[in-house]
Amino acid sequence: MERIDKIISKELNIGRNDAKSLIKSGKVFLNGSSVKSPSEKLDEEKDVLTVGGRVIHLRRFVYIMMNKPEGVISSTDGRKTSEKTVIDILPEDMKRKNLFPAGRLDKNTTGFVLITDDGEFAHRILSPRSHVPKTYIAKLDKPFDDEISDAFSNGITIGDDECLPAVLEPVDGDYTLARVIIKQGMYHQIKRMFKKYSIEVIGLKRIKMGRLNLDESLAAGECRYIDEKELEMINSD
To answer: Is 145 annotated in the active site?
Structure first.
């Protein structure tokens, strides 16, 4: 059981005083009845809370799949650079406090970004010990060959970094369009791996985390909630 003003503050990403003002204005209803006191408590498993006619989904944690568009940064705060973040472009009804991207995509890399407020889950899937595979489609300025594929599969060195074995294969026989599966998340890793062989990545999209594919119905910038079964798919290969 948790106080209603605290729930509203968390779910709508507003201050506690603003939440109390909404209650005072008569816009908050619990199971169809107007809420009179900010200290009133509710059962997140059973009760239905509405604010201004909008149903508030009461979840301890949320997990969101976003199809990140190009030009948006994987951060919680873009004020220092005046850039839009994946949090900025979330629909208003999905925004709540403490959301962050679990793992980052470069500004110009598109595709599957997981956004959550569950720090423990994010740490588990991002830990180097977990080795959750992430699948990308890379558009290249020139074709790769089987020798490079073999090198990827054996693990290569880029600068001071040692890459774990990775999968590199053509998409539909096109060696300028590569499917790459890595189990790390080093800075610009895929771009640096190809650069070692004088190949430039001119387009990169993440299409899969673990066994969970990016929902093809999501246009660039769109997102949806991930359910428990899908979460299990991310955390396994």
So the answer is: no
